[in-house]
Amino acid sequence: MISLEIPVDKIPYVRGIEGRKFRDGKWLFPESAAETLVKCGLLDSTYKVKEKEIVQYNLSDFLYKHQKDVVNKALNENGYGLFLDTGCGKTLAGIEIAKHIGKTLVLCPLSIIETAWVDDCHKFYPELRIVNCWADSKEKRLQALNTDADIYVMNYESFKILKDEIRKKKFQCMIVDESSVMKNMKSQITIDILSFINVIPRRYVLSGCPTPNHNLEIFPQMKFCNPDLLGNNYLGFQATYFHQDLENPHVWYQTQEDKDRFFRKLSDSSVFVKKEDCVDLPDKVFLVKEFAINKEQKQYYSDIVNDIKQHINQWSKFEFTAKLMKLREVVSGFVINKDSSITDFDTNKDVILEETLREIGDKQVIVWCQFIHEIEKLAKKYNGVALTSKTKNRDDIIRQFKNGEIQLLFAHPKLLGKGATFINCTYNIYYSLSFSYEEFKQSQDRIHRIGQKNKCTYVVLQAKDTIDNRIYNCLQRKGNAVDELYMEMGIQNFKREV
């Protein structure tokens, strides 16, 4: 850091310098601000920024070149963002970092503690001791935390429960996996994680999609890694790299110039790796199979659509979304009634599914669904295995599928959409689709990732002239089906009333 006493009349010149601090009567600036300080006449023109010595670490031979590159960059910094596309091996990168630093705390989704972090550590780093700190009681979690180990892995909820005890453990490193969990500056998990900036000396974030909704979401993640990088204030960061829409003050956008400055700044403490740039993977093939809904389904569907048209301008977006969910139920062959009973239909979607499974033959398949009812119903009907939020032996099922002991797996993307690796499988079928592009992309990457040698085929089942078409079209261009339908149907009704 550059330490200077700044005359009062010169203070306005330094307010735009990111990472500045005022302590004990002096201003502190990052070395990167030297050129600006010279131009302002606050620093002698002969000042030379010390070149940072880059250490070349001796990394594990089994890592791919891109993994070695990003790990080496990260180890040369006390904090760093590793934003690797799903399928690029960020879990191994995280374990390699922990191997070189020492006692490490890892936060990640519960679903990938065992089947990603623990399994990969046992397979590739048998010399390291890793412990799963999740349990069904605080006492058992504390017992795991007090175990002698090199890496301690826990989900975000366990972290919130154990944060006071964690502060006493003298961790050398903290890694937040799937760091988009802290995309909201005001969320409790973000506040809790950021409170460890001055507790754990070396901090890293891992994510394949750090900003699923907006580039503003990067601020808390990078603040955790390098508090000085983007400045001390979120609003200042927002005003520096974004423009406010004058017609809609709640909307902030970026020009190309904004984006260029934004990513140049991020490159000081993070790296973005695209799968196509670093891994030679086989092609993805998408097949859309359409079918017509039957007469009974059409009646239910029409009734819901008419209800939407009559009331959309009176509903909140939440109420509107609930109605869209009912439409999705109908095209999937069932509807949940007000008394919680379920009406099932004979549906052509099942006919297409059966034909597709017959064509695939004895190969392993993941069938992605959106509703617990369809997951359980289809698993029973086609002699597969259902994986839902109610499943207690989830990790066992994932391992059995990896080992080829299960041929047909029915699941929701949220349960398997992050961290799991199924390169033993080359077929995905989308029985029903999520509104979320992130879930759609993450689910694809469960089979299309490092180690996959075969072409990956994705079959999308679509009911003709229904919400299915709109959702898939939006997902292809990363749009938001809920917002688009809400605006479209609301405007149509408004014009009709006028």
Short description:
With 498 residues, this protein is of the alpha/beta class.
Overall number of strands: 20
Strand order of the largest sheet: 6-7-5-8-9-4-12
Determine the mean pLDDT: 89
Contiguous low-pLDDT stretches (5 residues minimum) are 493-498
Rounded radius of gyration (Å): 26 Å
Helical segment count:
21
The helix/strand class is alpha/beta
**Sheet with most strands:** 7 strands, parallel
Distance linking N and C termini: 64 Å
> How would you describe the shape?
globular
Strand content: 15-25%
The level of helicity is 40-55%
Provide structural commentary.
With 498 residues, this protein is an alpha/beta fold. The strands form 5 sheets. It has a 7-stranded parallel beta sheet, with helices on both faces. Strands 13-20-19-16-18-17 form a 6-stranded parallel beta sheet, with helices on both faces. Strand 14 and strand 15 (342-344) form a beta hairpin. The model is unreliable at 493-498 (pLDDT under 50). It starts with a strand and ends with a helix. It is built from 21 helices and 20 strands.
